[in-house]
Amino acid sequence: MSTTTAPTTGAAAELRPPLASLPSLERTPVLEADSASASPAFEALVSPALLPVDKELSLNPAAPAWRMPECWGHRGVSGAENTIMSFTEACKAGADGIETDVHITADNVLVMFHDPNLDRTTDGKGKLHDQPWTGVLEHVRTLEQPSQPIPRFQQVIDLLMKPENQHVKLNIDCKVENDPVKLFGLIKSELEQYEEWKTKLAPRLVLGLWHPKFIEPAADILPDLKRFCISMSIPQVRKYFYDKCHGFSVWYHPLASADGAAFREECRKAGKEICTWTVNGREEMINCARWGIYSIISDKPELWREVKGDLVADRQKVLKPTLSSYILPFLDSRNYSWHYVKKGQEERDYLEKEAGSFDIVAMPETLRL
């Protein structure tokens, strides 16, 4: 599939800066961190300048039908996932937001980590929840080089509060292994340490919820934060989350189906926002732009920035379907219903094993949005 784009002319050329003017995306050098240090040192972060189109876009669902999608870095960027280095690189690559995961340690410290177990990505062993931060987890390092510590929630918020990152959003994937009341209470306690957090932080934070039992505690404890259901199944979104969440973070492949198209239209009419994951291919990114997706969650925000530049230069040309647009979806087994329905059920089975049946969660009518 070709990624060559036509040269820009006229007003489009004014919107898109020449390549020579774009900031360098070289990786941030990492200094050695001793075991007692919470985080390695980094050079000063310089985020790329916003394009004119970034400043002009409206996020109002009642705005014109098409708008430029945002891009949120999936666990930061590809590499050592869920590290301060990864989050920093996502900001430097021009990501509009960061998607990350939260867990609670045995001594009630919030850390950004995906798995319930340490083994896959770090030199630690065992379940994260069973181990304290102080004296144990603070010394754990990633297997991916350069070796990095596990970041705390406070460090990520500090990154977002830097002047150059005041536009960056944070999508917090609330892992089902956590107790929701305890989790949201700890998040609120951390946020309250920041002056004017309800105006400077809350509008940029999204709570990602996998299980219905998280909805009511989120609404009660953190009413100022948006709630987005995370799901691999559109029928599950409709049944358990649709009228109680502000938006939905849905696996890409169900959204590419006929039912996905109908769901996208329902959300558009209702003013509900859709994020989708994990979108790492150019053609999939362009599809998201065709569909009117609110945010693309990707390991490759730098690739999205290229696609975004092409859209600014000649949106009509980029969005026009090509032969690849029609053929490529048939070559990916994940786009077939037998695959994504099976995966959605497997995910639900795990969620219910950890947190109980979806069907026993009763919620008051006042939670309807």
From TrEMBL:
Residue intervals of the GP-PDE domain: 69-308
Annotated segments matching region Disordered: 1-24
Low complexity biased stretches: 1-13
Protein name stated in the entry: GP-PDE domain-containing protein
